[in-house]
Structure of Integrase zinc-binding domain-containing protein:
Amino acid sequence: MKLQMKYRCLANQQIMVFCKLKFNKNRVYVSDSKLEQIAAEQQQDKEFIDIITKWESGELPFEIGQSYDVRNGVLYRIVERNDETLFLPVVPRSLIWSIIGHIHSKIHHLGYIQTLHSLYGLYYAPGMRKAVKKFIENCPVCKSKK
Ligand SMILES: [Zn+2]
């Protein structure tokens, strides 16, 4: 069913618009203050400015363009997980560390897998696994528990 939908999206512009509208109904689970922070950092980053500009003007190749969304100037990655379509704000490198720290302490310093899973439902960042591993290895609270 999903494949058929994508194929139709490719074949017909009008249905493509329909797909987008359907995606847009999905909720974002990150707080407004975090989104503001992410937006501010994205706007400092040349790579992000470039992707957002191209996305807005339709210059990105279709396959790439359809995996992103831009809302209120924030770049989101559209991710299919467990049959659900998630809109995950793309975290700039400069914020990865503080966002991992925020989630990791929010779940009371649970381990690597739990921290990674909590992040996966909220944010998108390339290199997330490595960053989480490194963060936990260096977390003073987790170290003291050992
Ligand atoms: Zn910890």
Q: What stands out?
A: Residues 93-106 form the longest helix (14 residues).
